Amino acid sequence: MRHAFTRTAALVSVVLGFGACVDDECHDEDTCTDDSALFEQAYDESLQPGKEDGTDCSGVRVPDRTGFNKRIALTFDDGPNPATTPKVIQVLKAHNAPATFFTNGSRYATPGAKEIAAQIAADPSFILANHSQGHLNLAQQSATKVASEIDRTDALIRAAGETPRYFRFPFGSSTCATMKQARDRGYIVTGWHVDSADWCYASGNGVCKASTFRYVPDSMRNDMKAYVMSQVRANNGGIVLFHDIHPSTADHLDEILTALEAAGYTFVRLDDTRAFPKLHGATPQPSPFIGTACTTNAQCAFAGGRCHSAGFCTQSCAGACPDQSGAAPTFCIADPASTSTVAGICVSKAAAQNGQCASLPGTVKTEASRFIGSSGAAPATATVCKPR
User: Fold this and answer.
1) Would the pTM count as exceeding 0.90?
2) What is the mean pLDDT of residues 93-119?
3) Where in the sequence of the chain do the CATH 3.20.20.370 domains occur?
4) Cα separation of 104 and 133, whole Å?
């Protein structure tokens, strides 16, 4: 279970010299909390293992932790801001990139903000979502205040033309009690896999200072694009957090999306159940692995994966092959389809997961010797699904 954020973080921020609030995050009449300390604690929390079924109370961790296959859901917090959100929308449209806007109800009072919210709600590529009324640390608020923070923005989103489905806690800061309040209202609570740290770069006029966010490598402190790319690569995609209220985010978004596209990433809606099945209560499809039936290389989307002519996913090997939980165990054999030089391929051992090879019609259940190659592995044999 996740513990509520404490005032210790705020005290630490004062000692380290953080400002009272990074940029334009405090929108309500209440005292603003320190963003730096809270975002750092959120980063720490994102690295904790958590429960894979998503039944804990974290507002940061997403139950889907892997299997994104270079799919990205772009999310933008804290708008709508008439000075910056229209440019963000323009860039997204230029890239045909869907996105989710987690909005603060207090922003809707700004002239032009309601019209932007209505534009987002009407666009099939976008989702208008709830980020509370005043961007408070809800883990430190009373139950009555939390209810008000959720419900006031809920009403504004509905007035804009969308039935809200997604809620994100400011800073990802929740307790089991606040999580229950959101879920009891039918919300899917959504954290993130990648924090772009755009709020940190914005606070330093393009430089993310170590005193503001210590997790950015020094080599990337003046290069938000490089930092985002490094974090996305580490997760192979996932849900990415930006803030559409910052001019620097709007100004750099095009180059970031261009770099992501060039690296082979694709953009999907947050409600894409292929990318985020557990978030939506669905059973994930088995991820492709050695021994999965296939017809094209694209269906074998794992490191080194390709589709063998016998109709199953494989990869090159010498001596040993990786195993994956839930999949049939594997074995490295000489590829009978190799015509020039002898090459090793990974195959499934005959097991219940493949019906003792019956689910792979291009193979035959047989004893095979290990392909050692230059690995120095010990000789061995196994019953495998060998290409015919």
Assistant:
1) no
2) 98
3) 7-280
4) 5
